[in-house]
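Lecture notes, part 5. Sequence design as translation. It can be helpful to think of inverse folding as translation between two languages: the language of shapes and the language of residues. The source text, in C-alpha cells, appears below.
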C-alpha cells in the first residue's frame, strides 16, 4: 500500500487520514435537507461511511479540498509555499507546443508560446509532462510520440511509435433524481442572494456559499454488472442540495451542454423551488475512447472521442444507478418533508413507460455528461506491454529524459474523483525523479 502512504502525506484531515499534510480537506457544509437525505439513505439500507476510508460502499458526507470556505488548490498547497526557491521559475499564460529532442532521442527541453512569441527552455536532466489526460497526449503527439500511422497523416516525424491517446476513460453522470420538497431546507437563489448569507460567508467562510456547488454528500454502490472485488464500487451518486431550475442563469444548462427543449421540460419554471438533486453515475466504465490531433496547430483543440456508453455494460450499470436515485421517493424521511420525485418526462423518451429500463436507457443516451475526470491516455505498464506509453517509473518508452505524471498514466480510472489520486501521482513522481523513498508502506 505504498501509494496510500503518499495520500496520507499530502492530506490534512481527521479520521482515516493524516492531519499534517499541506492539502486541506474538510467536510462539506451541511444544508438542513442533507440530514433528511442521510436518514432516507439509512432507511434504504445504505451504511454511513467515511468515503475515503477502508470501504467506499455506503453513504457519506462529501470531503473536498476546501479551507475556510475557499477552494484549497494545489497551487495554494504546494506551489505558493515554494515560490521563493531559487530552483523554481514559473511562467504563466504560456502554452507548451512540443518537447524538444536530440538526435539520440533524448528530451532536451520544451518549446512554448507566450505573448505571441516562441520560447525554448533547455533542461539538464528531465522533462516532466503534467498537462492532464487531454493535454499530455496532445503535446506528445505534436512532439512525434504516438501511433505512427496517425503522425504520418500530419507529416510529423516519428520519434517513438506508441499508443498515445488510446484508452481514454471518463466518469459520467445524469440528472434523473430530481426531488421537490415542501420545507425550506435546501439552497435556493433567493437564499444565496440574501445579505445574511453573504455576510456569513464573508466573515466566517461558512453557510450556503461555502457549499461546494451545493454538493454535500456522495454514496458508492456495487452493481450486479460489476466484476470487480466486493469492496470496489462501480456506481457513484452525487447529492446536490438544490435543483437546477431554481437558478435563472441555469448553470447546469451550459455545464452539461443541454438541449434547450430538454432542459426546459425537466428543469424549467422552477425558480426558487425548494428541492435537491441526485446525480447517478458510473465510475468504472468499460467504454474506451481516444485523443487524436485535428492539425499540427498546438492551439487547436484535439479531437476527443470518448465513445461514451459504447460498451453495453455501461448502460446496464447506469440503469441500476438511476433506479437508486429514484428510490428515495418512497422513504418516510422524504415523506416528512414533502419530498417528491419529479413527474416530468424527457420528451425525447416519452414513447417509453416512465422509469422502465427502456425509458432510463433512452434518458441516459440523451442526457449524460462528463464529470471532467479523463484518464488513461498515456497508460502505464510494463516495458513489454504494447498498450502502454510509460513504464512503471513514468518514463516514456522509446526515448530518454521524458516522464509523464498526471491522470493520463492511470491504467484504469479510479472509482472516485481523480484530484487526490493525481496529486499522489505527482508525489510519487517526485520521489522517482530524485531516486529516493520518502514514505513507508501503510498497513490497512
Amino acid at each position: 500500500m505504498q501509494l496510500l502512504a503518499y495520500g496520507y502525506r499530502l492530506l490534512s484531515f481527521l479520521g482515516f487520514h493524516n492531519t499534517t499534510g499541506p492539502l486541506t480537506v474538510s467536510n462539506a457544509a451541511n444544508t438542513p435537507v442533507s440530514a433528511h437525505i442521510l436518514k432516507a439513505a439509512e432507511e434504504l439500507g445504505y451504511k454511513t461511511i467515511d468515503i475515503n476510508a477502508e470501504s467506499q460502499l455506503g453513504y457519506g458526507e462529501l470531503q473536498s479540498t476546501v479551507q475556510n470556505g475557499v477552494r484549497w488548490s494545489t497551487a495554494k498547497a504546494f506551489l505558493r509555499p515554494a515560490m521563493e526557491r531559487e530552483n523554481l521559475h514559473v511562467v504563466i499564460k504560456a502554452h507548451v507546443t512540443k518537447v524538444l529532442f536530440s538526435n539520440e532521442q533524448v528530451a532536451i527541453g520544451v518549446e512554448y508560446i507566450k505573448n505571441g512569441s516562441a520560447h525554448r527552455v533547455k533542461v539538464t536532466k528531465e522533462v516532466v509532462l503534467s498537462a492532464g489526460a487531454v493535454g499530455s497526449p496532445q503535446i506528445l503527439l505534436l512532439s512525434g510520440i504516438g501511433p505512427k500511422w496517425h503522425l504520418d497523416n500530419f507529416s510529423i516525424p516519428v520519434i517513438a511509435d506508441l499508443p498515445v491517446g488510446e484508452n481514454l476513460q471518463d466518469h459520467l453522470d445524469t440528472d434523473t433524481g430530481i426531488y421537490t420538497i415542501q420545507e425550506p431546507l435546501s439552497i435556493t437563489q433567493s437564499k444565496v442572494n440574501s445579505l445574511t448569507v453573504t455576510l456569513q460567508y464573508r466573515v466566517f467562510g461558512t453557510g450556503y456559499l461555502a457549499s461546494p456547488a451545493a454538493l454535500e454528500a456522495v454514496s458508492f454502490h456495487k452493481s450486479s454488472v460489476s466484476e470487480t472485488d466486493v469492496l470496489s464500487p462501480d456506481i457513484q451518486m452525487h447529492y446536490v442540495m438544490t435543483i437546477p431550475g431554481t437558478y435563472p442563469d441555469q448553470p447546469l444548462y451550459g455545464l452539461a451542454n443541454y438541449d434547450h427543449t430538454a432542459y426546459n421540460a425537466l428543469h424549467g419554471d422552477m425558480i426558487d423551488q425548494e428541492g435537491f438533486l441526485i446525480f447517478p453515475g458510473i465510475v468504472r466504465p468499460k467504454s474506451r475512447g481516444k485523443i487524436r490531433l485535428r492539425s499540427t496547430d498546438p492551439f487547436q483543440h484535439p479531437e476527443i472521442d470518448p465513445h461514451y456508453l459504447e460498451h453495453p455494460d455501461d448502460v446496464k450499470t447506469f440503469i441500476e444507478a438511476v433506479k437508486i436515485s429514484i428510490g428515495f421517493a418512497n422513504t418516510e424521511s422524504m415523506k416528512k418533508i414533502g419530498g417528491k420525485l419529479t413527474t416530468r418526462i424527457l420528451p425525447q423518451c416519452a414513447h417509453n413507460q416512465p422509469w422502465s429500463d427502456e425509458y432510463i436507457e433512452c434518458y441516459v443516451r440523451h442526457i449524460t455528461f462528463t464529470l471532467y475526470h479523463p484518464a488513461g491516455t498515456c497508460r502505464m505498464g510494463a516495458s513489454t506491454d504494447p498498450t502502454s506509453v510509460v513504464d512503471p517509473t513514468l518514463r516514456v518508452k522509446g526515448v530518454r529524459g521524458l516522464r509523464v505524471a498526471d491522470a493520463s498514466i492511470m491504467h484504469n480510472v479510479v472509482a472516485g474523483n481523480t484530484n487526490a489520486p493525481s496529486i499522489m501521482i505527482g508525489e510519487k513522481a517526485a520521489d522517482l525523479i530524485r531516486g529516493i523513498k520518502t514514505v513507508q508502506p501503510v498497513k490497512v
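The translated text above is only one of many valid answers, since several sequences can fold into similar shapes. The two ends are 8 Å apart (CA to CA).
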